[in-house]
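dumping this here so i dont lose it
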């Protein structure tokens, strides 16, 4: 189990240190967008969507690091996910993957 390995937690803390600011930005943007729209009234669902958006940005930040690109891409993703929301990003990703599957 990876959660019992101390190096796993060191990697998690390192990812949070490197991408924490972008993740906080995403969390706040999503939460503010939800408040502005007023469609989701349950606080638990608001928090869950905000956390999911922050995790998406963490994954983007880790991917950007592995490819050796600028960390600014994580902030771009933070704004993108924060403004559009998790549902819109999921729909965009689904359409992109379907197009790529059709090309094969």
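and the seq i came up w/
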């Amino acid at each position: 189990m990876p959660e019992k390995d101390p190096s796993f937690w060191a990697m998690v803390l390192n990812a949070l240190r490197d991408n924490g600011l972008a993740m906080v930005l995403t969390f706040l943007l999503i939460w503010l967008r939800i408040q502005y729209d007023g469609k989701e009234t349950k606080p638990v669902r608001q928090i869950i969507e905000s956390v999911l958006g922050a995790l998406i940005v963490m994954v983007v930040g880790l991917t950007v690091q592995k490819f050796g690109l600028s960390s600014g891409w994580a902030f771009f993703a933070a704004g993108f996910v924060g403004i559009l929301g998790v549902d819109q990003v999921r729909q965009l990703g689904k359409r992109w993957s379907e197009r790529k599957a059709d090309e094969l």
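Helices lie at 6-37, 43-66, 72-84, 86-103.
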